[in-house]
């Protein structure tokens, strides 16, 4: 579904991402971990299109998308969580998702089509909010949401684009411990149906272990291991890489 081939991003002589080969199967949940500065975010930026690789490729369903900007990749089904800054705080939660659905579907200028289309857009927005457990907050101003709710809204905005591959960049960031299990449940449900695949960078090991089918470990820009959680955790090379860091 999603693949990287010898994916590399150099700044001068330094390889920030160094020849990474990854494969993500339909319906698969792949977690990316690694010590601070390992290149996880940079890898994400290359996959989503925020950065262009200096060598290697990103493939989506066999098509080389390495040169496409993020919005073209999103249209092909590769969606990345919106950063909090893309949420309009003074609009309601529902309006935010409605705008994302509209942006994804494109508008029809025909008046007779518009009313029906508007109803469909609102229904799609409400369905996305329902999926992430935010339906009861649809009328609230997005700016008033708690951290955990904001993360859910970001996932709903992503769902509005109907992605087949979802990239989640540290979805637990800033979420209080008591809200983590519910958010984990929402994220787990993303791969449950429709063959949608998820690639997630997350610092919390317990979260990754509870969600991922396989775990990719990055170290100094390279892929150290990529396997099922038990095998990765038992790998002495991985344990060595994390020496001095909490696994
Ligand atoms: N634009 C840039 N210019 C120079 N160096 C960069 C740039 N972006 C990233 N780096 C460097 O590349 C390395 C990898 O950074 P990256 O943010 O991808 O790692 P990470 O694994 O996501 O780290 P963390 O877990 O701390 O978020 C770091 O040493 C960082 O300083």
Question: How would you describe this protein?
Answer:
The protein is of the alpha/beta class and 247 residues long. The protein folds into two domains: 1-77 and 164-247, Rossmann fold; 84-162, no CATH class. 37% of the residues lie in helices and 24% in strands. It is built from nine helices and ten strands. It has helices at residues 40-48, 70-75, 93-105, 111-131, 147-160, 180-188, 205-211, 229-234, 236-241; strands spanning 2-11, 14-24, 29-33, 55-60, 63-64, 78-80, 165-169, 197-201, 214-219, 222-227. The strands form two sheets. A six-stranded mixed sheet has the order 6-7-8-3-9-10, sandwiched between helices. The protein has a four-stranded antiparallel sheet with strand order 2-1-4-5, covered by helices on one side. A hairpin with a 2-residue loop joins strand 4 and strand 5 (63-64). Helix 3 (93-105) packs across helix 4 (111-131) and helix 4 (111-131) crosses helix 5 (147-160). The longest helix has 21 residues, at 111-131. It is globular, with a radius of gyration of 19 Å. Adenosine-5'-triphosphate is lined by residues 11, 16, 34, 36-42.
